[in-house]
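Long-time lurker. I teach an intro course on protein structure, and each term I like to show students one example going from raw sequence to a predicted 3D structure in token notation. This year I'd like something fresh instead of my usual example. Would anyone be willing to generate the tokens for the chain below so I can use it in lecture? Attribution to the forum is fine with me.
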Amino acid sequence: MKERRVLAFILFLFFLLTGLKGLAEERRIALVIGNSAYKGSPLRNPVNDTKDVSRLLTSLSFDVETLLDASRMEMDDAIYRFGVKLKEGGVGLFFYSGHGAQHRGENYLIPVDAMIRSAVELPYKAVPAGLELM
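-- Reply from a regular --
Happy to contribute to a lecture. Here you go:
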């Protein structure tokens, strides 16, 4: 419960600092991903946090796409769609909760279907956090 209050506060600060007035005129797009069901090391909160964030953003008139326990292909496809929507104009917000890793200065989001044996596999089995949107 404490994590949800912190999350809500962070989102509140984001909107306060970016100015809700400017957002009122622009299209609002969000991609929200929560991965909990990892075979080797499941997590308790990401799916719950993702559902909460999705509800909050929907209430703020965002067009929200939500992925729960997503595979690499599902994440790649959703990020592509998110990029296409952003190219059409508007404000975008990306939220990810789940396992992540860093290798050689690059951060990666770990899909639930990833079976990673060593860090050298990250570029092939995980999603680069700095992935350029289409």
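Some talking points for your students: The chain has a mean pLDDT of 87. The helical segments are 2-18, 20-25, 46-59, 72-87, 122-125.
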